Amino acid sequence: MQRALVFGATGGIGQAICADLAQAGWSLYVHCSQNWQKAYTMAEGMSQKYPDQDFIPIKLDFLAKNDELKKFVNNLLPVNAVVFAQGITDYNFVSSQNMAKIDDILHINLLTPIKLTGLLEPHLIKNDYSRIVYLGSVYGGSGSAMEAVYSSSKSGLERFAQAYSREVASANLTVNVVAPGAVNTAMNSVLAPEAMEEVRGEIPVGRLAEGNDISYWVRTLLDVHSGYLTGQTIYVSGGWLI
Protein backbone atom coordinates (compact mmCIF):
# COMPACT_ATOMS: atom_id res chain seq x y z
CA MET A 1 0.00 0.00 0.00
CA GLN A 2 1.31 3.46 -0.91
CA ARG A 3 1.07 5.85 2.03
CA ALA A 4 1.99 9.55 2.08
CA LEU A 5 2.34 11.83 5.08
CA VAL A 6 0.94 15.26 4.23
CA PHE A 7 2.04 17.93 6.67
CA GLY A 8 -0.21 20.98 6.70
CA ALA A 9 -3.06 18.93 5.26
CA THR A 10 -5.78 21.22 6.60
CA GLY A 11 -4.51 24.32 4.77
CA GLY A 12 -5.87 25.45 1.42
CA ILE A 13 -3.15 23.81 -0.65
CA GLY A 14 -2.86 20.85 1.73
CA GLN A 15 -6.53 19.98 1.27
CA ALA A 16 -6.13 19.97 -2.51
CA ILE A 17 -3.04 17.78 -2.24
CA CYS A 18 -4.89 15.26 -0.07
CA ALA A 19 -7.84 15.16 -2.48
CA ASP A 20 -5.56 14.58 -5.48
CA LEU A 21 -3.45 11.92 -3.80
CA ALA A 22 -6.49 10.07 -2.45
CA GLN A 23 -7.97 10.00 -5.94
CA ALA A 24 -4.66 8.62 -7.24
CA GLY A 25 -4.85 5.69 -4.80
CA TRP A 26 -2.66 6.89 -1.94
CA SER A 27 -3.40 6.21 1.70
CA LEU A 28 -2.66 9.29 3.80
CA TYR A 29 -1.61 10.64 7.13
CA VAL A 30 -3.68 13.84 7.37
CA HIS A 31 -1.59 16.17 9.53
CA CYS A 32 -2.60 19.26 11.44
CA SER A 33 -0.77 21.49 13.89
CA GLN A 34 -3.87 22.83 15.65
CA ASN A 35 -7.09 22.12 13.74
CA TRP A 36 -7.72 18.53 14.82
CA GLN A 37 -11.44 18.58 13.98
CA LYS A 38 -10.69 19.60 10.40
CA ALA A 39 -8.09 16.84 9.99
CA TYR A 40 -10.47 14.29 11.48
CA THR A 41 -13.34 15.38 9.23
CA MET A 42 -11.11 15.25 6.15
CA ALA A 43 -9.90 11.75 7.02
CA GLU A 44 -13.46 10.54 7.64
CA GLY A 45 -14.70 11.95 4.35
CA MET A 46 -11.90 10.38 2.32
CA SER A 47 -12.34 7.03 4.11
CA GLN A 48 -15.98 6.94 3.02
CA LYS A 49 -15.09 7.86 -0.55
CA TYR A 50 -12.11 5.49 -0.85
CA PRO A 51 -12.83 2.58 1.54
CA ASP A 52 -9.89 0.49 0.28
CA GLN A 53 -7.39 3.12 1.45
CA ASP A 54 -6.38 4.30 4.92
CA PHE A 55 -6.74 7.91 6.07
CA ILE A 56 -5.32 8.70 9.48
CA PRO A 57 -5.56 12.13 11.12
CA ILE A 58 -2.43 13.05 13.05
CA LYS A 59 -1.29 16.07 15.04
CA LEU A 60 2.15 17.63 15.52
CA ASP A 61 3.12 21.16 16.49
CA PHE A 62 6.00 22.29 14.24
CA LEU A 63 7.39 24.21 17.21
CA ALA A 64 7.79 20.93 19.10
CA LYS A 65 11.03 19.98 20.83
CA ASN A 66 13.44 17.48 19.30
CA ASP A 67 12.33 14.59 21.53
CA GLU A 68 8.71 15.13 20.47
CA LEU A 69 9.70 15.06 16.80
CA LYS A 70 11.53 11.77 17.33
CA LYS A 71 8.57 10.23 19.14
CA PHE A 72 6.22 11.37 16.38
CA VAL A 73 8.30 9.73 13.63
CA ASN A 74 8.86 6.52 15.60
CA ASN A 75 5.10 6.02 15.98
CA LEU A 76 4.35 6.21 12.26
CA LEU A 77 3.32 3.34 10.05
CA PRO A 78 5.52 2.88 6.95
CA VAL A 79 5.34 5.76 4.47
CA ASN A 80 6.49 6.03 0.85
CA ALA A 81 6.26 9.80 0.53
CA VAL A 82 6.25 12.95 2.61
CA VAL A 83 4.78 16.29 1.57
CA PHE A 84 5.60 19.39 3.60
CA ALA A 85 2.70 21.74 2.87
CA GLN A 86 2.71 23.62 6.19
CA GLY A 87 3.91 27.19 6.43
CA ILE A 88 3.33 30.60 7.97
CA THR A 89 4.19 34.17 7.09
CA ASP A 90 3.99 37.60 8.69
CA TYR A 91 3.60 40.78 6.65
CA ASN A 92 5.93 43.25 8.33
CA PHE A 93 9.11 45.29 8.09
CA VAL A 94 12.05 43.39 9.56
CA SER A 95 12.75 46.28 11.94
CA SER A 96 9.18 46.02 13.27
CA GLN A 97 8.89 42.26 13.34
CA ASN A 98 8.46 40.50 16.64
CA MET A 99 11.55 38.36 17.33
CA ALA A 100 9.48 35.44 18.53
CA LYS A 101 7.55 35.56 15.24
CA ILE A 102 10.85 35.41 13.34
CA ASP A 103 11.75 32.28 15.31
CA ASP A 104 8.35 30.73 14.54
CA ILE A 105 8.60 31.39 10.79
CA LEU A 106 12.06 29.86 10.55
CA HIS A 107 11.14 26.84 12.69
CA ILE A 108 7.86 26.03 10.94
CA ASN A 109 9.00 26.74 7.38
CA LEU A 110 12.60 25.53 7.48
CA LEU A 111 14.18 24.13 10.64
CA THR A 112 11.54 21.59 11.68
CA PRO A 113 11.12 20.28 8.09
CA ILE A 114 14.90 19.72 7.95
CA LYS A 115 14.85 17.87 11.28
CA LEU A 116 11.87 15.73 10.28
CA THR A 117 13.53 14.93 6.95
CA GLY A 118 16.56 13.51 8.76
CA LEU A 119 14.37 11.49 11.11
CA LEU A 120 12.19 10.15 8.29
CA GLU A 121 15.04 9.18 5.96
CA PRO A 122 15.66 5.68 7.46
CA HIS A 123 11.95 4.89 7.05
CA LEU A 124 11.73 6.18 3.48
CA ILE A 125 14.79 4.49 2.04
CA LYS A 126 13.47 1.06 3.03
CA ASN A 127 11.14 1.30 0.03
CA ASP A 128 11.93 0.50 -3.60
CA TYR A 129 11.36 4.19 -4.22
CA SER A 130 10.29 7.12 -2.09
CA ARG A 131 9.55 10.82 -2.44
CA ILE A 132 9.82 14.10 -0.53
CA VAL A 133 8.14 17.26 -1.76
CA TYR A 134 8.40 20.62 0.00
CA LEU A 135 6.02 23.49 -0.66
CA GLY A 136 8.20 26.50 -1.34
CA SER A 137 7.21 29.87 -2.75
CA VAL A 138 7.91 32.12 -5.69
CA TYR A 139 9.44 34.37 -3.02
CA GLY A 140 12.13 31.77 -2.45
CA GLY A 141 13.52 32.75 -5.85
CA SER A 142 12.50 36.42 -5.88
CA GLY A 143 12.45 37.92 -2.40
CA SER A 144 9.47 39.97 -1.31
CA ALA A 145 9.55 43.20 0.67
CA MET A 146 7.44 42.90 3.84
CA GLU A 147 8.12 39.15 3.81
CA ALA A 148 11.90 39.08 4.07
CA VAL A 149 11.98 36.39 6.76
CA TYR A 150 9.43 34.26 4.93
CA SER A 151 11.40 34.68 1.68
CA SER A 152 14.62 33.61 3.38
CA SER A 153 12.96 30.51 4.86
CA LYS A 154 11.67 29.43 1.44
CA SER A 155 14.96 30.18 -0.28
CA GLY A 156 16.74 28.10 2.37
CA LEU A 157 14.32 25.25 1.72
CA GLU A 158 15.20 25.27 -1.98
CA ARG A 159 18.94 25.08 -1.33
CA PHE A 160 18.45 22.40 1.31
CA ALA A 161 16.39 20.27 -1.07
CA GLN A 162 19.00 20.66 -3.81
CA ALA A 163 21.85 19.65 -1.51
CA TYR A 164 20.02 16.89 0.35
CA SER A 165 18.74 15.32 -2.87
CA ARG A 166 22.36 14.51 -3.78
CA GLU A 167 22.84 12.64 -0.51
CA VAL A 168 19.95 10.23 -1.08
CA ALA A 169 19.62 9.95 -4.88
CA SER A 170 21.25 6.51 -4.96
CA ALA A 171 18.55 5.24 -2.56
CA ASN A 172 15.79 6.14 -5.07
CA LEU A 173 14.57 8.92 -2.78
CA THR A 174 13.79 12.03 -4.79
CA VAL A 175 13.61 15.44 -3.15
CA ASN A 176 11.95 18.40 -4.86
CA VAL A 177 10.23 21.70 -4.18
CA VAL A 178 6.96 22.92 -5.67
CA ALA A 179 6.97 26.71 -5.37
CA PRO A 180 3.58 28.40 -5.89
CA GLY A 181 3.03 32.00 -6.83
CA ALA A 182 -0.08 33.78 -5.57
CA VAL A 183 -2.68 31.21 -4.55
CA ASN A 184 -6.31 31.76 -3.63
CA THR A 185 -5.96 30.61 0.00
CA ALA A 186 -6.46 32.02 3.48
CA MET A 187 -2.76 32.97 3.72
CA ASN A 188 -3.31 35.63 1.07
CA SER A 189 -6.70 36.74 2.36
CA VAL A 190 -5.01 39.11 4.83
CA LEU A 191 -4.13 41.40 1.93
CA ALA A 192 -6.50 44.19 1.02
CA PRO A 193 -8.73 43.47 -2.02
CA GLU A 194 -7.06 46.26 -4.00
CA ALA A 195 -3.63 44.77 -3.28
CA MET A 196 -4.79 41.38 -4.52
CA GLU A 197 -6.18 42.99 -7.67
CA GLU A 198 -2.79 44.56 -8.28
CA VAL A 199 -1.09 41.19 -7.91
CA ARG A 200 -3.63 39.55 -10.21
CA GLY A 201 -2.88 42.17 -12.83
CA GLU A 202 0.83 41.29 -12.70
CA ILE A 203 0.28 37.56 -13.35
CA PRO A 204 0.60 36.78 -17.07
CA VAL A 205 -2.08 34.07 -17.03
CA GLY A 206 -4.47 36.60 -15.49
CA ARG A 207 -5.60 34.83 -12.33
CA LEU A 208 -4.53 33.52 -8.96
CA ALA A 209 -3.69 29.84 -8.67
CA GLU A 210 -6.20 27.45 -7.14
CA GLY A 211 -5.18 24.61 -4.87
CA ASN A 212 -5.44 21.99 -7.62
CA ASP A 213 -3.03 23.98 -9.80
CA ILE A 214 -0.41 23.17 -7.17
CA SER A 215 -1.53 19.69 -6.11
CA TYR A 216 -1.22 18.43 -9.70
CA TRP A 217 2.55 18.91 -9.57
CA VAL A 218 2.84 17.32 -6.14
CA ARG A 219 0.95 14.26 -7.35
CA THR A 220 3.15 14.09 -10.45
CA LEU A 221 6.36 14.22 -8.40
CA LEU A 222 5.12 11.37 -6.21
CA ASP A 223 4.50 9.12 -9.20
CA VAL A 224 6.73 6.07 -9.65
CA HIS A 225 7.79 7.33 -13.09
CA SER A 226 9.20 10.62 -11.76
CA GLY A 227 12.39 9.07 -10.40
CA TYR A 228 14.84 10.98 -12.62
CA LEU A 229 13.74 14.42 -11.41
CA THR A 230 15.36 15.38 -8.11
CA GLY A 231 16.87 18.43 -6.45
CA GLN A 232 14.65 20.77 -8.46
CA THR A 233 12.32 23.65 -7.71
CA ILE A 234 9.24 23.85 -9.92
CA TYR A 235 7.75 27.34 -9.92
CA VAL A 236 4.00 27.19 -10.43
CA SER A 237 3.41 30.92 -10.70
CA GLY A 238 1.44 31.59 -13.88
CA GLY A 239 4.55 33.30 -15.25
CA TRP A 240 4.69 35.77 -12.33
CA LEU A 241 8.06 37.03 -10.99
CA ILE A 242 10.20 34.00 -11.93
TrEMBL record:
It comes from the Bacteria. InterPro entries: NAD(P)-bd_dom_sf, Sc_DH/Rdtase_CS, SDR, SDR_fam. Pfam families: adh_short. GO terms for biological process: monocarboxylic acid metabolic process. SUPFAM superfamilies: NAD(P)-binding Rossmann-fold domains. PROSITE patterns: ADH_SHORT (PS00061). NCBIfam families: EF_P_mod_YmfI. Belongs to the short-chain dehydrogenases/reductases (SDR) family. This is 3-oxoacyl-[acyl-carrier-protein] reductase. It comes from Lactobacillus kimbladii. The gene is fabG.
